[in-house]
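Write out this protein's structure.
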Amino acid sequence: MTMHRRHFLRSVGLGLPSLALLASLSACDDNGDNGDSAGSGGSADGNGTPGPSGRKKVIVVGAGISGLGAARYLADKGHDVSVLEARDRMGGRIWTSEKWSGTPLDLGASWIHGIDGNPITDLAKKAGAKTAVTDLESATDYLASGQEIEGAQAQALDRWRKATASALSSFQKKDDDDASIRSVVQNALGWSKLSDSDKALVSYALNDYEHEYSGGVDQMSALYFDDDAKIKGKDVLFPGGYHQITDYLAKGLSVQTGQVVKQIDWTSGGVTVTTDKGAFQADHVVVTLPLGVLQSGSVKFGPGLPKDKTTAIGKLGTGVLNKCYLRFPKVFWVDTDWLEYVPDLGKYGQWAQWINVARPTGQPVLLGFNAADFGRTIESWSDAQIVDSAMSTLKTIYGGNIPQPTDYQITRWASDPYACGSYSFTKLGATSEMRNQLAAAVDGRVHFAGEATDRKDYATVHGAYRSGLRAAKEIAG
């Protein structure tokens, strides 16, 4: 669900090609997983079906991409796999809305972040899913007044973006004691001596980190917030919807929706997964519950989880990135991929980033993002309040005579009981190693997957998918 995972390449002047529809993605040479990918969409993978003694019964909790990836891999190896999903749909935090006929929109994950060496690239090719490139260099920036940022102001924004990144990089090289991103940046840049206009630009740069990593800059660890693998290649999204990938993986799998897991118990002999509709027995269970759900305590673990795992659950962060799609009678905005707005200091983090959905879809749709604290705050607002707030920013930029939206679609991921947030971040007080502890199997029976368990690609779809393959391989051997 992350936006671009570009590690702020714009701040150092590196760009990507302009937005263009691609017929399909080319297969990657190396998907980063020793050549294994859940791939056949239902058939065994050529290694043969294990004999009766080797056939294991596995329950997968959650039909997001990590769960479907695990289930696909195990089913293709000949194991007996059942997927239990609380929602009435598959996909988890991949959720393509078909509300607007002919315009599928992703309410959760949108991008393949870096198509080179990415297993989702291979899946997209096999699924026949068309993609569109988004380019961070294709952006138009606006000041709080609505004035386009050009000339000296553009240079100032670029300078403060670079200074912010440099402050964090220097801190990571020199310090062992952690601190929040905000405190590190403000201390390094002499915050109290900055003008309000410069503070607004620095705040915009800080909010950019929030949009990428989903946590607030007062909460994110300055030492570990970006301790992940650098992506390679273009970022692409799916004009036809990300559901094409999860639908492809799910072909032929046994998936039961409407099964809300309440308890997971295990002994040396097997596991029992209890839902609101009954109990299920198996040899192994793959738990792909989002970190936010684990933190909520809504699912109980019988004998109890190891202390290092409960510590990791408690200390890692679950962030928010919410979307507001607005559909208009016509396009009235500039024809760049991104529209970026620097709000006044008093409106920190409000409607700062937009993507021009008209480019990949041909429909007059804008998508506004709100992350972290403001993204969480507006979940308690009515739809009308959220739309009015969004329109206030757009009217500031494009004038009071722009048309009202004809419809909207709004997400509230933190309020979703089966997500409890958008994706994980490394919170102040946590370490990257805690993701390995979150991923560790318990007693050889209970296996964990999901984006938060992936040490190098957390908060990405490919990280979630790879974590599912990892857990499946723990079982399959």
